[in-house]
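quick q for whoever's on today - can somebody do inverse folding on this one?? i tried earlier but teh output was garbage lol. tokens:
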């Protein structure tokens, strides 16, 4: 069969861009009685997308418009969600005031770019909405004193699939976006969430956070130390995104927990642990076995192995997981570069048991008992 050409992935629009478009249409209707449809907005990098209205309504002192979020080819949980903005006239001199409607969260913990008690509408979307109100107010001779209530129906349920509950954003989703554009399968949103998790942990004064490559590892490390949810960082494959930010914004203690293969790659020096961007080096693992005094036939079998688990099984009673954890810890400390963060590495098997580690913060007897001794 002939190879099919790879089509470029389609970009989409952030919730912030959608809220801005809805705001523009609603404010225009509040002032003139007519909805602009489609409604065009200006984004920070100069793009001028137009959005078709999916909803519009108007009363004596309010107007509401809504657009359907199109995230392009990105697997965004908010793709297809309705984003609405309801505008009412504000008190004279009040400027633009933001409120959280149904499905938009409220910030309850410090450390985020929005103050505690405020709607979870991030700074750039706030700026875009404020600027579009100011532009239209100048055009129509209005003062521009309005209340903007942003809503995402069903957002409270969708938010359970995001970091929001862990970050202390309760009641719904965040209205996000720095450029207004969603880049398909971008790593930036995940790394951004890691950074915000660190910010929240620092603001809360937490002495210890744990970053995990997956849910099994996260459950294991939380069980071990009894950490609160906002001390848990969903690192995934982005060890570099975690460590480089911590170097600038350090915390006292960091535990990195993950599977043997992922942390072997960290031990090899990789900071991106995704299978498409780094691979387990079986010769490297065989060399670690050799250092531990493994029999030559086991070393040869490790070099010829197909999976990291095969090599771990070949190690038998030899502390290969500890040796790999020590190498991973050395990589992490090298990135942190003396910032003062103490680092522990824990290797977790698929059953959630700790099979190796380095730089442990607690007694190793706790590993088998499931919690600190």
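ok took a stab at it. sequence:
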């Amino acid at each position: 069969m002939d190879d099919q050409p790879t089509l470029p992935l389609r970009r989409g629009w952030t919730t912030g861009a959608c809220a801005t478009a809805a705001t523009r249409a609603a404010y225009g209707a509040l002032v003139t009685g007519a909805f602009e449809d489609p409604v065009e907005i200006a984004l920070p990098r100069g793009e001028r997308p137009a959005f078709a209205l999916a909803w519009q309504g108007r009363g004596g002192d309010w107007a509401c418009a809504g657009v359907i979020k199109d995230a392009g080819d990105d697997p965004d949980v908010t793709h297809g969600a309705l984003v609405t903005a309801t505008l009412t006239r504000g008190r004279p001199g009040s400027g633009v005031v933001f409120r959280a409607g149904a499905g938009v969260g409220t910030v309850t913990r410090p450390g985020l770019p929005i103050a505690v008690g405020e709607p979870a509408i991030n700074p750039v979307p706030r700026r875009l909405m404020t600027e579009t109100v100011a532009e239209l107010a100048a055009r129509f001779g209005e003062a521009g004193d309005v209340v903007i209530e942003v809503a995402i129906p069903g957002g409270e349920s969708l938010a359970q699939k995001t970091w929001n509950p862990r970050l202390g954003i309760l009641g719904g989703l965040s209205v996000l976006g720095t450029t207004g554009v969603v880049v398909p399968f971008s790593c930036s949103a995940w790394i951004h969430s890691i950074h915000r998790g660190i910010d929240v942990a620092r603001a809360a004064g937490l002495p210890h956070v744990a970053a995990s490559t997956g849910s099994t590892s996260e459950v294991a490390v939380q069980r071990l130390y009894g950490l609160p949810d906002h001390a848990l960082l969903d690192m995934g494959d982005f060890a570099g995104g975690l460590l480089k930010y911590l170097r600038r914004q350090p915390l006292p203690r960091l535990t990195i927990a993950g599977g043997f293969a992922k942390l072997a790659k960290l031990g090899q020096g990789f900071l991106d642990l995704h299978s498409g961007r780094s691979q387990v080096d079986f010769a490297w693992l065989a060399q670690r076995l050799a250092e531990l005094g493994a029999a030559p036939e086991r070393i040869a079998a490790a070099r010829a192995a197909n999976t990291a688990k095969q090599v771990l099984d070949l190690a038998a009673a030899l502390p290969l997981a500890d040796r790999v954890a020590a190498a991973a810890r050395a990589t992490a400390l090298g990135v942190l570069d003396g910032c003062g963060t103490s680092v522990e590495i824990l290797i977790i098997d698929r059953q959630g048991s700790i099979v190796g580690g380095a730089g442990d913060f607690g007694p190793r007897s706790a590993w088998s008992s499931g919690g600190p001794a």
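fwiw Confidence is low (pLDDT under 50) at residues 1-6, 369-373. also DSSP finds 13 helices and 18 strands in the chain. so keep that in mind when u check it
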